[in-house]
């Protein structure tokens, strides 16, 4: 794993991201900005408003100003880079764009977001048409929303917001959670092959709807086996291993093993530090397998080996986090809040009720 685009897209619809506001979407719907699949184009397809585009496209401005869209991240986190993808927008891409982020508690609507404290992620920069425009981001804050501004108008196919999830520890007060879940901060840090499907999808929320929503390798023609390594959201004890081969019917692995390591005290490069979580276990195609396990060790990372190759829809690792780690998670969360969000959090957990604005009708 090298550049920021290897990190998960926090805005993706696959993670629950959405477009909550835009000043205009005359030619093409804002919602397309967060579609997980790459953009497509069919020349000469005209609807009642014009050429059909797989992206967000505003009308031609006849007055000064600029257009904007606001995205809710599916999983709030620290942003490492954004991709303003103008694929297929050639005579109608915006020549410039900027991106800002804000961190808000609760579930703000467009009116609250308009008044939010927006911090710069990408300064106003030139864009190329029909191009994935990459911008590195350097900000330590945990953002819940981003705002894309385009100058003055035009079309953008996708906005990818790559980063590291920073979970809200209040969501698992008793320390029980899926230690591998992307939305909790679990992260794929390496894999042998991802020819047909991204390994990040293994950790995505919900059930996969098709084979395309899982991790799938190419057919192996040697004696090796495929594997994926995951950094857990937080160090913890794994209580159950869920390996879901749903939709993989002619291409499920025959068997799998799972090993864990506490990389704070052992070197992952040395085999000695790895302990068995799930012994080599036969798998069935198209099946959600759930194996209770009793592992005394704490793991920071796991490695799933599949034999010999194939595909898997999801891997879940329900487990328990030590109270000390929960404290560390709380500190990491509070230290990464942008100033406006931090000001809204009163001490002693008062954010549980009415933390954002008055109750409806109140
Ligand atoms: N051929 C076009 O793309 N024209 C217009 N856009 C759409 N969607 O028809 C425009 O003015 O940008």
How would you describe what is shown here?
The protein has 362 residues and is mainly beta. The chain has two domains: 4-165, Jelly Rolls, CATH 2.60.120.260; 170-321, Jelly Rolls. It is 7% helix and 38% strand. It is built from three helices and 23 strands. Strands 1, 5, 6, 7, 8, 9 and 11 form a seven-stranded antiparallel beta sheet that branches. Strand 2 and strand 3 form a beta hairpin. The protein is globular and about 65 Å long. One of its GO terms (molecular function) is allantoicase activity. It is an enzyme of class 3 (hydrolase). Its EC number is 3.5.3.4.
Task: Give the structure's gist in a few sentences.
The chain is mainly beta and 362 residues long.
- What compounds sit in this structure? allantoate ion
Uncertain parts? 348-362
- Span between termini: 50 Å
Average residue pLDDT: 93
CATH-derived topology of the largest domain? Jelly Rolls
Q: Roughly how much helix do the residues carry, as a percent range?
A: under 10%
Q: Compute the number of structural domains.
A: 2
Number of helices: 3
As a whole number of angstroms, the C-alpha radius of gyration is 22 Å
CATH class of the largest domain: Mainly Beta
**What's the SSE pattern?**
EEEEEEHEEEEEEEEEEEEEEEEEHH
**Beta strand %:** 35-45%
Q: Rough shape?
A: globular
Specify the biggest β-sheet: 7 strands, antiparallel
Count of DSSP strands: 23
CATH-assigned homologous superfamily of the largest domain = Galactose-binding domain-like
Judging by the overall fold, what is the CATH architecture of the largest domain?
Sandwich
Structure class: mainly beta
InterPro entries: Allantoicase, Allantoicase_dom, Galactose-bd-like_sf
Keywords: Hydrolase, Purine metabolism
GO molecular function: allantoicase activity
Pathway: Nitrogen metabolism; (S)-allantoin degradation; (S)-ureidoglycolate from allantoate (aminidohydrolase route): step 1/1
């Amino acid at each position: 794993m090298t550049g920021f685009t290897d990190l998960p897209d926090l805005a993706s619809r696959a993670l629950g991201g959405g477009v909550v506001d835009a000043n205009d979407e005359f030619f093409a719907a804002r919602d397309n900005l967060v579609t997980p699949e790459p953009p497509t184009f069919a020349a000469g397809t005209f609807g009642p408003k014009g050429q059909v585009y797989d992206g967000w496209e505003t009308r031609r401005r006849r007055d000064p100003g600029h257009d904007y869209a606001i995205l809710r991240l599916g999983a709030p986190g620290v942003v490492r880079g954004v991709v303003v993808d103008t694929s297929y927008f050639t005579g109608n891409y915006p020549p410039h764009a900027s991106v800002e982020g804000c961190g808000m508690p609760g579930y703000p609507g467009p009116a609250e977001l308009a008044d939010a404290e927006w911090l710069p992620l990408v300064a106003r920069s030139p864009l190329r048409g029909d191009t994935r425009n990459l911008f590195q981001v350097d900000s330590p804050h945990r953002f819940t929303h981003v705002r894309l501004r385009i100058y003055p108008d035009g079309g953008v196919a996708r906005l990818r917001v790559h980063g590291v999830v920073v979970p809200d520890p209040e969501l698992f007060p008793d320390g029980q959670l899926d230690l591998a879940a992307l939305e909790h901060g679990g992260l794929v840090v390496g894999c042998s092959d991802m020819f047909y499907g991204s390994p990040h999808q293994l950790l995505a929320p919900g059930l996969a709807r098709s084979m395309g929503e899982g991790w799938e390798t190419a057919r192996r023609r040697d004696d090796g086996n495929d594997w994926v390594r995951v950094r857990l959201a937080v160090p913890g004890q794994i209580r159950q291993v869920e390996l879901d081969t749903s939709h993989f019917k002619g291409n499920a692995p025959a068997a799998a093993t799972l090993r864990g390591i506490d990389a704070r005290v052992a070197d992952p490069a040395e085999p000695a530090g790895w302990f068995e979580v799930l012994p080599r276990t036969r798998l069935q195609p198209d099946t959600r397998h759930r194996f209770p396990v009793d592992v005394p060790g704490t793991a920071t990372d796991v490695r799933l080996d599949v034999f010999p190759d194939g595909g898997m829809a999801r891997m879940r690792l329900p487990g328990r986090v030590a109270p000390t780690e929960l404290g560390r998670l709380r500190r990491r969360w509070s230290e990464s809040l942008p100033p406006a969000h931090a000001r809204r959090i009163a001490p002693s957990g008062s954010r549980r009720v009415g933390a954002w604005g008055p109750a409806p009708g109140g």
